Amino acid sequence: MADAQWDDLRIFLAVARAESLTGAAKALRLDPATAGRRVGRLEESLDARLFVKSPQGYTLTEAGQRLFEHALRVEEAMRGALSGGVTPADALSGSVRIGAPDGCANYLLPQVCAAICEGNPGLEVQIVALPRVFNLSKREADMAIAVSRPSAGRLTVQKLADYHLHLAAAESYLERHAPIRSLGDLAGHPVVGYIPDMIFDRELDYLSEIGTSRPEYASNSVPVQLNWIRAGAGIGIVHDFALPFAPGVRRLLTGEISLRRSFHLIRHADDRRVERLNLFAEALAQRLRAEVARLESLA
């Protein structure tokens, strides 16, 4: 490892994260061939194969995964060294990438992270909104928010906040249809929800709880579903914290249909030693919990 230079490790990390030479080269502003040569040089110096190449991209070997964990610690040490050690203990700096379901990413994280960044000018936050579970072992993000606790992996899990969901419809839709006063009145109404075979977490299978399995209007995106409801396409389950962003949409049958879910913050176990990520996680938990409560009070 003594022969491996930091610059080679930096390229190695970029390839591992992008799972391709092209993606890594673009991120680092290098030629893909140069990135490939540098990875080859690193493999030669370590006498180990670090990647398996396939049509799907570059996948870490067992040796590559071991080096990946070590390289992350080197990267964190380099960030600390470059900061000069002058950052106050209660301040945040550097880049943090957080992955989250698109409902959380659209309606909660922008204002929460903006507030954190306002008090920490040296902090850069990247929000990756994807309707799926993030793979922290591949370091797609520094941390991720999920609605279910993971059952495997070297991960730490922290509960962030409970949130609530209710059946809702647009006033424009309700004006055109018979009143909905009970569960029995739901029959015949078009439903908005997730594409059934794209529900990546059982906690998102809301419609089964109201006796519906196949929505007439379906999307894997929470904002798309909410916009369909706002347009008067039908009825659907909506996050209470999203309702303030959807004027003209109101809750229905709140005494009969009320769902509660939880957000969990998931991190790689090795990151417990990274103080800036610990500080960010603490600030995120406090502000997200408060923001959910604020927005739900306006629903």
From TrEMBL:
Gene Ontology molecular function: DNA-binding transcription factor activity; sequence-specific DNA binding
Domain HTH lysR-type: 6-61
CDD domains in the cross-refs: PBP2_LTTR_substrate
Keyword terms, alphabetized: DNA-binding, Transcription, Transcription regulation
Single GO BP term: DNA-templated transcription
Gene3D superfamilies for this protein: 3.40.190.290, Winged helix-like DNA-binding domain superfamily/Winged helix DNA-binding domain
InterPro entries recorded: LysR-type_TF_proteobact-type, LysR_HTH_N, LysR_subst-bd, WH-like_DNA-bd_sf, WH_DNA-bd_sf
Family (UniProt): Belongs to the LysR transcriptional regulatory family.
Designated name of the protein: LysR family transcriptional regulator
Species this protein is from: Halovulum dunhuangense
Organism classification: Bacteria, Pseudomonadati, Pseudomonadota, Alphaproteobacteria, Rhodobacterales
